[in-house]
Amino acid sequence: MPANDISDFLLKEYERISQAFFEARETTAKWVKYYLIIMAAPFSFFAFMYKDKPRDFDISLLPDTLSNLMWLIGFVGMFLAFIIIESSTDNILYARAVNGIRRIFMDRENEQFANIRQYVILPTDIKKPRYLGWKKTLWITIITGIINSCYISIGLSQTQFFKNKASCPIGWMLGILFFIIHLAFYIINSLRKEKKDG
Q1: The pLDDT value given to residue 163
Q2: Residue 161's domain spans which residues?
Q3: Is 163 exposed, middle or buried (0-12, 13-18, 19+ CB in 10 A)?
Q4: What is the pLDDT of residue 180?
Q5: What pTM was estimated for this model as a whole?
Q6: N or C: which end of the chain has fewer CB within 10 A?
Q7: How many domains would you assign to the chain?
Q8: Which among 32, 151, 147, 142 is positioned nearest to 87, based on CA atoms?
Q9: Please, what sign has the CA dihedral across residues 138, 141, 144, 150?
Q10: H helices of the chain, where?
Q11: Interior CA angle at 30 toward 192 and 153, to 5°?
């Protein structure tokens, strides 16, 4: 294949992948919005149920309906968090692909223009950004993990099954367990994609 044909193909591929990258970021942002809307739902119920008697509200003594709603929304939030994490790691794949195409052109142009790299700010490393690291996806995992774990532990610890037991330690244990599940999903998903991409 002639060099011009390869260049044209790579330029078109660059445009498609960069467009897909921005669309994937928008999709992730939409999932975050849906997540926040669902997580805010119980507060609307609290406001409605306790509007005439706000002093009666106690998060540790919820009626069965509200405690069931809390843990159910926590579980829904957990699966939404998994979708957000998956979508965020897909964004990394697109970013790496764009970096790779940029690097091909940089390596070719280095032969003609020895100092071209000092003028290019955007990355050309196909191993960056990293799937697993202290970046946006980890912070999303931590924040959604804390929120979902609180919902699940508060809700489940007040259901009929746990009510007669020491609900506070059970609530904490459940919260820690579900937070660990969030982190495990992020780590396993990132390592799997890193291995696949490597």
Answers
A1: 62
A2: 3-197
A3: exposed
A4: 96
A5: 0.79
A6: N
A7: 1
A8: 32
A9: negative
A10: 3-49, 64-110, 136-156, 160-163, 167-197
A11: 70
